[in-house]
């Protein structure tokens, strides 16, 4: 029997529905004057008399329903009958209250999606005309494999045979899915999910609408924007409030409100995307509550919508090409707090007509400025935007001017420079930005030493330095940024790790107390490099390490194997060299993810000492000379996935490991093993 639950039904309502299904003729008599326990008892007795049963509780929103069902219909393990109760839900937390490993419904494939659209539009006996197939494929791409979305769109296309009609639907998929005038649209389903969100998280969800439709959103950027915009409701500050923001994003994913496009090696969300119908809902609802305003020209209109209303125009976002400038030249718009425009390879928009130099004049109280889609030039007026908390800019600059020292409230600075130089120089004034927490750049930045007058107690708030030059890692600099959690170093690493320094270049790293994520990226040929003894100063905090082109001997990897907190290790482009690697016994005891990319001349991997006892994911890319993956990996208790790409010689050993894992795998085990090989072999087991 199928019982729809939804958001409003209470446990007793569910039991009443079940009674009406199993005993329609005398349901009133069975229901009258009975409480929940009595109703459940009556249902159990009735069902036992009628043999096995399957009850489906559809669209469950509350874990209390799960607890109630378990109590009302307990398992009879002594006399199992094969009865089943199935729940469907949109929320992972509800599903996991039933089972630690619930079944996740897969999206329809592109082929199945098109077939469903075709049958709904033309019936089962007719095919889609060739001239419309291109539009049909683009439409189902935008539906992202969601059957309900495809069925709703098919309703809009039924009876349409003209290319112009199909193109119009293709360009407005989201609007068709969220059509408030169509009772068959998806609006009510989206509204239910939105209304079920905690009140303090609704604005953060609607903020997804500032990104263009179909845009892959970097999770780190979204989180920093949320914080800068004040959308994370918490009494916490600094890294703690960013962790709260991360739980927001995980919650939205768990509620199936956002699609996770990529995950990090530690399982966290790397990029995400909004379905077109949810994006359209965010635009509509955000406009209703005046969260942000889109700046665009409506069809047939030559005038931009006004940005003069302080209630509706505090946050401005640009998601389409701008045929002419809308930033006022002759007046100040003091209420504007945010200006956001995103363009990428996914969706290029023309913003060449926008007069960027007018921003400081027109929006003097702006706090959030993300205009990496534009070419930015520094000006003296720009330095007067004292309220800025978040800056993301792109330009052809080689030096970050001293005017940045005026941004006392700045939390995040994202720089992309098109200069031909290999580094970006930053002046001493950066140390005046006492609230700066994240500095991201596409080139390694050259940091100045802090002023000698600055006391050591006045440390920087910096948490992220995505790329710095090796000569920036002086003792005075690292003492100033001692709270760093993420550090990337790119350039000639001989100054830090060269044989001639005898490890002394790395002494300054003892100043870092909190670093969790470290990247060491060596550029070009240099003298012989070695891991210094002081690398152990990081062992209490370092959990993710990336090495590239460092050419360490494999024997030095044993030092990394002793880092007790290390969970993710990425070795790229000859991070280690040599023919053989044999880790020591018990090494890498907490390592969960190991990625090795292009290890030239590496032939033998000996794991007879049983290292990697916590390993869950192994990735081998372009390890052309590796003869085999160690057969001992089949015994690792937590190994879930092996991925081999262009590692041809080791394929047969990986397949053998897969066979062993599957033979030993308990069907009830929570750990399932997966082997991915690319290019796929001609025949696999």
TrEMBL record:
Similarity-based family: Belongs to the disease resistance NB-LRR family.
Protein species of origin: Solanum tuberosum
Protein name: NB-ARC domain-containing protein
Keyword field contains Membrane: yes
Alphabetical list of PANTHER family matching this protein: DISEASE RESISTANCE PROTEIN RP, DISEASE RESISTANCE PROTEIN RPP13-RELATED
Location of the Disease resistance protein winged helix domain: 210-281
Any single Pfam family the record assigns to this protein: WHD_DRP
Membrane topology note: Peripheral membrane protein
InterPro entries: Apaf_helical, Disease_R_plants, LRR_dom_sf, LRR_R13L4/SHOC2-like, NB-ARC, P-loop_NTPase, WH-like_DNA-bd_sf, WHD_DRP
